[in-house]
Amino acid sequence: MNTRNVLLSALTLLTIVFASLTVYEYNQIGNLSAQLQSRTQTRQCIRTGQGYAFYVRVVADGKNTSISGAKVNAISYTTCASGDTEWGSPITTMTPDNGTVALPVSAIGGYNIIIGYQGASYPVGDVFIAPVRITIATVSIPSGNVTIAHSTPPSP
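Above: the chain sequence. Below: its structure as tokens.
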């Protein structure tokens, strides 16, 4: 083989290698694009009835007196007909003197809640917001006992 044939063979081999790499990269970009599209598809979950009001109340065990300064960490959720769950944005607020905070109830299914107080965490878990009802989640500290009550709103 002369030098010209060696150079031609090397050039052909390099062309094949670069073409293979280009096809591989193109396929990887296509795969990534498909993954991103599948993750960013939006689902519309429509709730049949909106809650009237939702309150989280923090009280002392035994005395049932209000506890102010408890940290309420909540994230809203809606369970779709498909079985998927749509999560909202986290909400963090502190209980005032009356120990009760109101959380928004627009078109959601409920909240997952954790209460923080004096270095301890009290997981409330998922609280369903009943349609056209007042829902109150009461957390007793330090036992962590939780009661959920649904009541009829006042007549207009």
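The longest helix spans residues 3-40.
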